[in-house]
Amino acid sequence: MNFSKTTEYSLRILGFMAIEDHKLYSAEVLNQNLDIPFRYLRKQLTRLTNDGFLISYRGKAGGYKISKPLNEITLWDIVNATGEDSLYHECIFGFDSCAFGNKCALHHKWAKIQNSINDMLKNTTLEELKRTKPERFTIQHNLMLTKNV
Amino acid sequence: MNFSKTTEYSLRILGFMAIEDHKLYSAEVLNQNLDIPFRYLRKQLTRLTNDGFLISYRGKAGGYKISKPLNEITLWDIVNATGEDSLYHECIFGFDSCAFGNKCALHHKWAKIQNSINDMLKNTTLEELKRTKPERFTIQHNLMLTKNV
DNA sequence: GCTAAATAATACCTGAAGGTGTCAATTATA
DNA sequence: TATAATTGACACCTTCAGGTATTATTTAGC
């Protein structure tokens, strides 16, 4: 009952980069801050670039930066891009057909929770994350050796 | 962002058996009703028995039945028994240490959702499921060939 | 007691998520 | 232009949840 590692990593990466969203971050710097295996981080950075969240700059002094205004990127966008199983209409019993119409009491309770998760993801942008920096990120933020473009 | 198959199956099995909780259900009958691969269902039934949710009767005309009053079995008990990752104190970024104290806005939103899930699971017993039979279960319930002990 | 029908135990198989290794392509700067 | 530092591409490895196969054990009923 968690997001996949890949989803968590995506949130970490973009959540971290949002703190100073105009900086260019190298994979090396991100690796020093985010506790994600280097090779896998690299793979995910390429994916996030292909998915349009990041712009990459190759060559010496290259790196990544966030591609659009922070208030245009919701957590929902990020979560969905990882191929995370949809949170819509999931039955707690795992039945495909249990999601529509009037079902058990459990179904209503579960739908309510699902909706609260979906709403939260859809209504939270990276902008909000920037305003309220996660403590974990800020602790290590001093260590960063970032560069301006 | 779902429960594991194993958790879903456990909920299905016990949710179904709760509808007529004094009946003895064979693995065969459960298989006909629950859309769970037979061998895997068998394995899970043995596990649920070892975990104390079911009592098994071996030999001809054997089967399984629920071991205690329905109001003593919460969904929380079932979910936890499958080894489902704890829903307590999970950080949406997947950091172990991000779960305590005052963190980002996201942390508070996430904790609120986690709590609502935990509360729901802890406050819902099989008794409630019995009272409000899932449609999917009742549809097929006529097909059952159950036996009394 | 024999047989059939049920569960128990144990080992194995499989696909996909997560993770790694290697080399190619790009680019700033000396 | 040579070099070093960066990302891109692509193939491979590993682990484990989910699923399968086989044989042993138990018991009702003839």
Specify the CATH homologous superfamily of the domain at 5-84 and 125-141 in chain A.
Winged helix-like DNA-binding domain superfamily/Winged helix DNA-binding domain
Beta-strand residue fraction of chain A: 5-15%
Strand order, biggest sheet of chain A?
A: 1-2
Report the C-alpha radius of gyration of chain A, rounded. 18 Å
CATH class of the domain at 5-84 and 125-141 in chain A: Mainly Alpha
List the helices and strands and how they pair.
Two copies of one chain form a homodimer.
Chain A: H1 5-19, H2 27-34, H3 38-50, E1 54-57, E2 63-66, H4 75-81, H5 105-123, H6 126-131, H7 135-141
Helix pairs in contact in A: 1-3, 2-3, 4-5
Chain A binds a DNA duplex (30 and 30 nucleotides) through residues 4-6, 26-28, 37-40, 42-43, 45-46, 49, 56-64.
Textual characterization of the structure:
2 copies of one chain form a homodimer. The first copy, chain A, has a domain of 97 residues: Winged helix-like DNA-binding domain superfamily/Winged helix DNA-binding domain (Arc Repressor Mutant, subunit A, Orthogonal Bundle). The first copy, chain A, is 50% helix and 5% strand. Chain A is elongated. Chain A contains 7 helices and 2 strands. In chain A, strand 1 and strand 2 form a beta hairpin. The C terminus of chain A is likely disordered. Chain A has 149 residues and is mainly α. In chain A, strands 1-2 form a two-stranded antiparallel ribbon. Chains A and B meet through helix 1, helix 5, helix 6 and helix 7 of A and helix 1, helix 5, helix 6 and helix 7 of B. Chain A binds a DNA duplex (30 and 30 nucleotides) through helix 3.
